[in-house]
Amino acid sequence: MRRWMGVRAAIGIASLAALVLAWPASAGLDEALTAYNRGDFAAALREFKPLAEQGNAEAQFHLGRIYLFGQSVPVDDREAVKWFRLAADQKHAKAQNNLGAMYEAGRGVPQDYQEAARWFRLSAEQGLPQGQGNLGNAYRLGHGVAQDLAEAVKWYRLAAEQDYAAAQFNLAIAYKQGSGVPQNLTEAAKWYQRAAEQGDALAQYSLGIIYGTGQGVPQDYALAHFWFNLAASSGNPEVVNKAAENRNRVERIMTAGQLAAAQEAAREWKPRKSGEKGEPKGGATGSGFVISRQGHVVTNEHVAGKCVEVRAGPPGEPHPKVEVVALDASNDLAILKLPTAPALVATFRDSRAVRIGEGVVVFGFPLLGMISSQGSLTTGAISALAGLGDDSRALQISAPIQPGNSGGPLFDMSGNIIGVVSSKLSERYMLEHFGSIPQNVNFAIKASIAQSFLDANRVEYARAPSGAELKPADIGERAQRVTLQIECLR
């Protein structure tokens, strides 16, 4: 039950005289806490009782818990309230929170939302995250206080930033619904993730929905399956059946490799404890290409630049963690390094200038989880020798690209690199501002910019002259061997 959770509070000592007088009680308290923590509640009760009667707030709080949960004694809500109140009157934050919860539920006292909110506030103002979360609930529901969704978000945020999972989940809902805060699906996904990592089944189920639909995160069926799988195995009756149904639905549109990886990840997953950083999960996916015998890979900065961990590899295989060698946000470029030497590397085109109308080939891993996990090839032409606003660092191309193509190679018709795929003109922006949808207005960073970046970081790469044209299928065969999936874990 979330409302009863708490962390052990420190006991302050005001003076040397108090230290002398309190020493025997402190020694007894340590023994009582040791017994309580190992589950020997009968021994803990014997130790706590005299300390609580002497006025020790920590002992009173734990004695209240013993009666509340029936630990070695029959459940006695009134006795629990008695001891919680004695500790709460001494400003014991956890006891204040629990006393508020007793009033809210009407256990051991008549139900009184106003009194519940008063005690939640006293606890919250001392910084206890459980009290802050409960006060947020009071404001959201209008229980004992005037309903105020913005005030609810304020208290949820304070608790969430202390890594309290219940408040993180409620803050995620607020962002998703735009309740008390402007709607922001990216923020919603962030807080669902924080709660889900701690084992909150409702957050895990919600995160599965988010990854399955691409709300606030790149759509990723493997991650959707992962979180649905955890929620389905949680034992929480609110989500078990729904999570299992959605997991099975997602399985039907996943590749065998994706399914195996998602199932293995779920088997190895362990919830992190509150306050622990935990393993990174989720994030962006993109493409990259190998350019050196030492295993250097080029991709976009917006793919690999804000990650806790970056992984890269060919499709259908486990992706190893890679080193981020260098980032260039101004030119949207990144250099990664594989842990092992590659079998084949891409070559940059030597000498001959790019011309308008020249044919090009794009290869990458767009819309991962929706279309072929083995990569996608598209063809087109150089539409312009500059990007948006006459940006001389970019090329405009007509070859179609999608989310996930970012960082992938742009080949000429001889199979040499002439650019790094980077972006497309926003169809939504153009429709909203100009009333029309652009047709294949996409951009790539010129190879010369990427080569200068590699030179600055002393990375060797190969060049080759472009001569006879190849068929797109022949270029595609080579592209498959030098292009990698990039995973950004956050």
Description:
This protein has 490 residues and is an alpha+beta fold. It is 45% helix and 16% strand. It starts with 15 loop residues before the first helix and ends with a strand. The N terminus is likely disordered.
Average the pLDDT over all residues and give the rounded result: 86
Q: What gap, in angstroms, lies between the N and C termini?
A: 30 Å
Tally of helical segments: 18
> Rg from C-alpha positions?
29 Å
Query: What about the largest sheet?
Result: 6 strands, antiparallel
Class computed from helices, strands and strand pairing: alpha+beta
**Low-confidence segments:** 1-25
Number of strands: 14
Residues in β-strands, percent: 15-25%
- Order of adjacent strands in the largest pleated sheet: 3-14-1-2-5-4
Residue share in helices? Answer: 40-55%
Shape: elongated
Key terms for this structure?
alpha+beta, six-stranded antiparallel sheet, 45% helix, elongated
Question: Quick gist of this model?
Answer:
45% of the residues lie in helices and 16% in strands.
Draw up the topology in text.
Elements: H1 16-37, H2 41-53, H3 57-69, H4 77-88, H5 93-105, H6 113-125, H7 129-141, H8 149-160, H9 165-177, H10 185-197, H11 201-213, H12 221-232, H13 240-251, H14 256-268, E1 285-290, E2 296-299, H15 301-304, E3 309-313, E4 323-328, E5 333-337, E6 347-350, E7 359-364, E8 376-384, E9 394-397, E10 409-412, E11 417-424, H16 427-434, E12 442-446, H17 447-456, E13 462-465, H18 472-482, E14 483-489
Parallel strand pairs: 6-13
Antiparallel strand pairs: 1-2, 1-14, 2-5, 3-14, 4-5, 7-8, 7-10, 8-9, 9-12, 10-11, 11-12
